[in-house]
Amino acid sequence: MTNEDSPFWVKVHHSVTGEVIVAACDRGLLGKKLRISEKFEARVSEDFYMGRMASWEQIEKLIESATIINLLGDEVVQAAITAGLIPEEASTTIGGVRHVQLIR
Q1: What's the average model confidence in pLDDT over 15-36?
Q2: The domain spanning residue 65 has which CATH number?
C-alpha cells in the first residue's frame, strides 16, 4: 500500500487511566490552523494525529478496541458515517472542517 492509497493519518494513544484513543484526520489537515472564531484558532497537532498513514479499513480495525474515537476531516468523518459508525448529525464543524468524538 502506498501513501496515495492511505488518505488518513491515525495514531493510537493509551492513557494512564486505561483509555485507548484512536485519533484520525484527513491527510491534508496535519499542521493546519482552523479558525474557530475571530480571536481563536486551533492547530491540527502532529503530536496527536501523526502516527502513520492508513486507509479507512485500517482505522476501522483500530476503532474496534478504542474507548475514545476522535475523527477530524470531511473525508474521515464521511467514511465513518458511510460505515454506519456514526449518524451524520453526530458530527460538528471546527473551523469549517467536520469533527466527531465518540466515547464508549
Answers
A1: 96
A2: 3.30.1860.10
